[in-house]
């Protein structure tokens, strides 16, 4: 089973991905926890190129190519090998983030994102968990957590609001695999909601 986490910056999805991995391991599952951009040596090198530095360092078109290259390496070296031997893969962000950040928020490039994804990736998650969060609260969390990879947080609350609306629209577009989870409350409260959703999907 391939599970992805999506949401705006600061929504808590990285924490929740870790908590879900721990929960499933506790139930006897073999779980691979990974992230995008990154998750393999080549993809991590591309991550460093894209997420650090000036917010307008790359054009949206260049970012689409960079993220797709990173995703392809990640797919070949991490995701597909794990799925092939029956492991559960949990990924913090996948193609839906590219659909939003490059395909929506930085221009009307969704068609290009989808076309390149179909040609080079050809895989969607079995389940996508959208952790929904108030944009201002998410941005506050994201800008105070002290991480270096602040590439997109520099776009501000307007982008966060646009991203949230875009993710909610994606959840409607791909109803068969998206589940939207309220990201408010403590990490344990959010984790309980997510665990319930995943347990139901796996039965």
Structural summary, described in words:
Helix 3 (60-84) runs parallel beside helix 5 and helix 4 (95-105) crosses helix 7 (157-173). The model has no long low-confidence stretch (mean pLDDT 90). The relative contact order is 0.21. It is built from 8 helices and 5 strands. 56% of the residues lie in helices and 13% in strands.
Please describe the structure with a list of short key phrases separated by commas or semicolons.
8 helices, alpha/beta, single chain, 5-stranded parallel β-sheet, 203 residues
What's the SSE blueprint?
Layout: E1 2-6, H1 13-26, E2 31-35, H2 41-51, H3 60-84, E3 88-92, H4 95-105, H5 110-120, E4 127-132, H6 135-143, H7 157-173, E5 178-182, H8 187-202
Helix pairs in contact: 1-8, 2-3, 3-4, 3-5, 4-5, 4-7, 6-7
In short:
The protein is an alpha/beta fold and 203 residues long. The chain has 8 helices and 5 strands; from the N terminus they run E-H-E-H-H-E-H-H-E-H-H-E-H. The longest helix is centred in the middle third of the chain and has 25 residues.
């Amino acid at each position: 089973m391939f599970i992805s986490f999506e949401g705006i910056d600061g929504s808590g999805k990285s924490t929740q991905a870790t908590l879900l991995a721990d929960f499933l391991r506790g139930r006897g599952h073999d779980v691979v926890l990974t992230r995008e951009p990154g998750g393999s040596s080549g993809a991590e090198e591309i991550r460093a190129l894209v997420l650090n530095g000036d917010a307008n360092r790359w054009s949206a078109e260049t970012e689409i190519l960079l993220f797709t290259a990173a995703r392809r390496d990640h797919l070949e070296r991490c995701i597909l090998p794990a799925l092939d031997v029956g492991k559960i893969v949990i990924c913090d962000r996948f193609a839906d983030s590219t659909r939003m950040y490059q395909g929506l928020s930085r221009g009307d490039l969704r068609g290009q994102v989808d076309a390149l994804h179909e040609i080079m990736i050809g895989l969607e998650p079995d389940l996508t968990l959208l952790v929904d969060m108030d944009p201002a609260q998410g941005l506050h969390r994201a800008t105070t957590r002290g991480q270096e990879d602040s590439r997109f947080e520099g776009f501000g609350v307007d982008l966060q609001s646009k991203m949230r609306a875009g993710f909610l629209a994606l959840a409607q577009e791909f109803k068969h695999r998206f589940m939207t989870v309220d990201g408010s409350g403590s990490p344990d409260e959010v984790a309980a909601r997510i665990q319930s959703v995943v347990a139901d999907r796996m039965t």
